[in-house]
Amino acid sequence: MTSKKNLGQTRAIILIYSPDQPGLVAAVSDFISINHGNILYLEQHVDRQNHIFFMRVEWDLENFLIPREKIEDYFQTLYAQKLQLTFRLYFSDDIPRMALFVSKHSHCLFDILARYTAGEWNVELPIIISNHEDLRWVAEKFGIDFHVFDVKKDNKAEIEAQQIALLKEKKIDFIVLARYMQIVSENFINQYPNKIINIHHSFLPAFVGAKPYHAAYERGVKIIGATSHYVTTDLDAGPIIEQDVTRISHKNSVEDLVQRGKDLEKIVLSRAIESHINRRILVYRNRTILFS
Amino acid sequence: MTSKKNLGQTRAIILIYSPDQPGLVAAVSDFISINHGNILYLEQHVDRQNHIFFMRVEWDLENFLIPREKIEDYFQTLYAQKLQLTFRLYFSDDIPRMALFVSKHSHCLFDILARYTAGEWNVELPIIISNHEDLRWVAEKFGIDFHVFDVKKDNKAEIEAQQIALLKEKKIDFIVLARYMQIVSENFINQYPNKIINIHHSFLPAFVGAKPYHAAYERGVKIIGATSHYVTTDLDAGPIIEQDVTRISHKNSVEDLVQRGKDLEKIVLSRAIESHINRRILVYRNRTILFS
Amino acid sequence: MTSKKNLGQTRAIILIYSPDQPGLVAAVSDFISINHGNILYLEQHVDRQNHIFFMRVEWDLENFLIPREKIEDYFQTLYAQKLQLTFRLYFSDDIPRMALFVSKHSHCLFDILARYTAGEWNVELPIIISNHEDLRWVAEKFGIDFHVFDVKKDNKAEIEAQQIALLKEKKIDFIVLARYMQIVSENFINQYPNKIINIHHSFLPAFVGAKPYHAAYERGVKIIGATSHYVTTDLDAGPIIEQDVTRISHKNSVEDLVQRGKDLEKIVLSRAIESHINRRILVYRNRTILFS
Amino acid sequence: MTSKKNLGQTRAIILIYSPDQPGLVAAVSDFISINHGNILYLEQHVDRQNHIFFMRVEWDLENFLIPREKIEDYFQTLYAQKLQLTFRLYFSDDIPRMALFVSKHSHCLFDILARYTAGEWNVELPIIISNHEDLRWVAEKFGIDFHVFDVKKDNKAEIEAQQIALLKEKKIDFIVLARYMQIVSENFINQYPNKIINIHHSFLPAFVGAKPYHAAYERGVKIIGATSHYVTTDLDAGPIIEQDVTRISHKNSVEDLVQRGKDLEKIVLSRAIESHINRRILVYRNRTILFS
């Protein structure tokens, strides 16, 4: 099952960072203009504290003089090495492949599948992985492969090796932990650096770890939140992609928070996935630059 | 200088909590009705986890059969001891007296003074206390006494004793720390339990302590907040009264956060003050019941 | 297919309004207490401008002395006629039956089905009605009857008669227009007064009618919204149940607004449905009292 | 009285719009780079529906080869006429002069004065104009000239002529209507096109005209808002600069809405003023491009 959004002409997208220096915007936009590329979006940002330059440019390849397979090489040779640019080049018709990891909660899974089947995202979803059978019926409704791995304390390394093999076989580009209630190992994370998106059910860095709604209730906060972030080896401390919040009151029980939080979680996670798919996120020193 | 809002007839306000048991609403509303009081507002809440009943009732004293000076005694004798109620009784024409503590930032001070001089609040503000001279000109513009106490590491106990003496002399009912950059001692806090309102410039419990905007920037959050709370001996961990948040992005520097945060801080602090003045806050086990 | 949330003991819920007068809370809470009912929630509100009293009480029937089938009669005889109360009585184990009307957009439908199949709502959903075949596959995935009525300009009255017959046959209690792109007739509406919930894709009363996102774009607003409301014969002017908003900017095209609006629409509609199911809404003079 | 924020080196700011065409970013950034200007901020936006290109660039003049008084001429000759650019050039040390118009409400005035006296804005405020004496005491507290013009139905043209003369004499660059409860004439507006900022106390385009809070209450909305916009001859229909909203409920009276709305109004107006002062707003076809 495939969801491909018709996006017209193929576009190239380049994400760049480098030490800040005068002339960077001019240089990059010049590269595109003189080769007859039409810039569709250009956004730059300078982190003045650390003197780092960030940029995302998207351009139409229709009349571009450089063949797409040579763009990376040309840009590297003519600009990147000279200007100390670190860059990633993408093409809009390279459709990323996503794997979902779930446990028992269905709200994020449904939200993702609803968008996917409606063709909202330029992504493929070949596989859903879980540590429980509970959501198999959902995956099957939508005709997507569902694999259960019975993770236990003593077989984690072994299971993860099997999971990685399966992910490689399915040519997965990035992973979404859609309320997957397991901590993944350092080894697993290192296979997919800044390519595993998690949803944490609190307004991080408040309430790291398990049972954040209980902790929020105990602390008596007046607002709860949800946070999507890339997974790093530091638990719940990876680069934040999206956050959102909703107001609560003393009238709300822990169960109310859990219930209301679900709407936050699913929207915040889906927005993060969309930004990732559209190559709008650049990670630098544990913070995200989120281009619009 | 006095700000008194004309609020029509005198009203009585009672705040109650007790172990939950059937018949509490009926009993309390009955007490008022059979004595010809007209209930203006009634709000109750049951904490089902801890089985505690909370209630706030406000009624018109115009035709009330019990003289106001005897209400407390009658209610205690006839209801409270029988039903194990803990209660506080207030009258709308008893105007609370507020002291402000400030340091160098003026935004909260201006916001409070603007509301105070416009007569929005039923409060008296006889005194502003600071550890710096910087904001004397503001206090003087508004004709309010301004006292500077030069707090140092080795004279804190002594200075606080002087401050308490001054607060007692001025018959202060509650204290607002309007970006007062000093930690007050346990002894000071114990003089005004649940009567010292602080504004912390983060979405607590995230970023406790000093320099929360720097910490928020470092962590790369996408939303910042402010929190007003009662001061307890546990730093930044007292009962939360109000919180609010605003969205930020990677484009914002620490200075931007500081600047934007000011609007949050002043509104969140002023809302907490207003709720306190209007006797809408009940504290129970480090959480606030905030009646509407 | 049925979704029944286990809610423990059966509870009675009463929604009341009346001309304001002293003693109403005492009278109603007394009725429950003296008959050994345990009040679980009580919320009252007085509209001081129009002198109307509103109340919602929910109590446990476990030890209630009056048999459930006689409560309405007793309350009517002993209280309602004497105090001019208008009331509706519900029981928590009477599960309302909902019909969905859809057209081509799937986002609201998926959100409702996700909650329904997860058992979040105490509701039955026997039927989905549409004017197009497009979403039949979704209904079939979830095993729910899907009926298409080919509404045209000249057959509206006839089609609506068929729809009403079907709704009556299925014993439908209330209807949700989940982005159903047809205007329903006065006759249809009168069959279900305050029982048809619509989602309008704007922050009403701004942008009434068709193509609100285009209108919002043209007007250059910085925030867009969605509104759920009961359908009345006055287009998009019925009592508002829920609204929510999200921030946009000049960067967003009409298509962006349509896309972002979907998340608002589905959450705002689902919240309204939940409030309706839980008997928390009272309509008075085209405004809703939304008990918490 | 003057409020000048120390902003370091002088910067040039250019706001541009033009028909969209390839190479615009490259051309403009090149102009700055080849003349040794260091770009501090660059933001561009393309309105794809209307094929219009918008851009804001801010650069450091320290080593810029073109003398500041010749930049406009050079840019016009070398780029603007060739590329059909419409542009406005500003310098960071040209401090704009603002006039305030007020009536009786003090909340916006206090908020503006608090920021102004704290030195938050790079602006001069030589004069406050009113149609009432009520707020003279506020202006006098802050040492700012306060002029009352007794506007009546039959003297409006005459009074406005006097006001314009005064504004010209004081070299006013832009005007802020800080809850000024008068409609200004077409003639007046034409003197200051896109230079008069108004705050309307509703979420426009909902509740245009007088008494929006009453209208919001009657309609039963669940969220209220405030809107700052440039004044055009079409009442409350000028280009929107900023909007914000807050949640209300059936519990809130009209007076509550008025009270809560004040916090929205003052923040939304002050944000608009700040954007205007910082040359971040470009108006095109009754919509604002609000650069960040």
What does this structure look like?
Four copies of one chain form a homotetramer. The first copy, chain A, has 292 residues and is an alpha/beta fold. Chain A has two domains: 11-91, 2-Layer Sandwich (Alpha-Beta Plaits); 97-290, 3-Layer(aba) Sandwich (Rossmann fold), CATH 3.40.50. Helix content of chain A is 33%, strand content 30%. The longest helix of chain A has 24 residues, at 254-277. Chain A starts with a strand and ends with a strand. At the A-B interface, strand 12 and strand 14 of A face strand 12 and strand 14 of B.
Nutshell version of this structure?
By secondary structure, chain A is of the alpha/beta class. Chain A has helices at 24-34, 68-83, 107-117, 136-141, 156-169, 186-191, 212-219, 254-277; strands at residues 2-3, 11-19, 38-47, 52-60, 86-91, 97-102, 123-130, 145-148, 174-177, 196-200, 223-230, 240-247, 281-284, 287-290.
Specify which chain pair forms the largest interface: A-B, 33 and 33 residues
What is the CATH topology descriptor of the largest domain in chain A? Answer: Rossmann fold
Strand content of chain A: 25-35%
Instruction: State the share of residues found in helices of chain A, binned by percent.
Output: 25-40%
Q: Average pLDDT value of chain A? A: 94
Quaternary state of the chains: homotetramer
Q: Distance between termini of chain A?
A: 29 Å
CATH top level assignment of the largest domain in chain A: Alpha Beta
Query: What is the chain-wise order of helices and strands of chain A?
Result: EEHEEHEEHEHEHEHEHEEHEE
Instruction: Name the shape of chain A in a single word.
Output: globular
Q: Please tell me the CATH architecture of the largest domain in chain A by its name.
A: 3-Layer(aba) Sandwich
